[in-house]
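ok trying this again, last paste got cut off
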Amino acid sequence: MENSWQTKKLGEICTLVKGKKPKSFSDTGKAYLTARVIRALEEAQYTEEEDGVVCVDPEEILIIMDGSNSGEMFTGLSGIVASTMGIVKCSKEMLRVRFLLYFLNMNREDFTKSRTGSAIPHLNKEEFENCEIPLPPLPEQKRIVKILDEVFEKIEKAKENTKQNLDNSKELFEAVLEETFKDIKSDKKSLGDICKVIGGGTPSKESTNFTKFYNGTIPWATVRDMKSDIIKKTQHYITEEAVKRSSTNIIPKNNIVIATRVGLGKVCLIEKDTAINQDLRGIIPFDNDEVFVSYLFWWLKSISKIIIENGTGATVHGVKLPFVKGLKVSMLSLREQQKIVKKLDALSAQTKKLEKIYQQKLDDLEELKKSVLKSAFAGEL
């Protein structure tokens, strides 16, 4: 770092101004910027002259002050700033806005670590203002920003290409999966004729029952646990007492659970005996010599869009038990089922391998951004 660089506290060169909710309406149609709708501006009509109203300029940095996204920053927006937001106003004689924005984004994790508030986290204003920023002369700031803009543009393009490749690999597998079962010409049976379809429930979470029903040893699955093809662990574990005194049911291991309400269309295998909540159904074949579980798993995955399209309900989309039991399964010999499963298992493994490679590349690109930023503010660009 050159000798011309200084170190300043943000509070010496910036002012963090908190927004304020307006009290009255008018016909000005000025955008009202809140943390919740920051990307889709809510056209609330407030007076610009309203006493105490805080307005942001597109050249200024808008920062979320309250909530789980506190510390997130934006530029290029104009409007009245809600009380959950703030504006970072900086001294133009000492600081370029984009230089500051890069610095703040690099240090966002530090700001969020110092958030206060148990129910709703708040950005710690004092901690923010005490944060020290390396400060080169304005021409040097301009040069650094130019380099960062160019490098970050290339990184973002690389990320977009990688994300597209990731999406393409997933779409290709889904297309093959759908076509595999569409091409089958065979007799069909209703799912309810070849499988037991079992519902679930939620043990009471009231304080008098919680210690008796939860923190047990039995996995209890909800849609939140359906993050991959196989559920290996769950967020919550319940007790035998919870199973006896609620409508939940335990689905034997190596069977299927599907989401029929929240998360409609999701399908998973379970690695262990697992209890389920009311949004899930367990699918258990009556006769394993008639149909393979893995065959049913891939078939259900192939019709997930059909299940979603048949969902009903104003607030929560779902399908009823008769619909699930009435789904038509193409019946093949066990040998033919095994061939299909082998083909799809292999393609799935290959797809997951590609996805892992693409995800690693995305992670590497994020690390590259951090490394470049670190070099920039160490005076090494």
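PB: full thing came through this time. Residues 77 and 212 are 52 Å apart (CA to CA).
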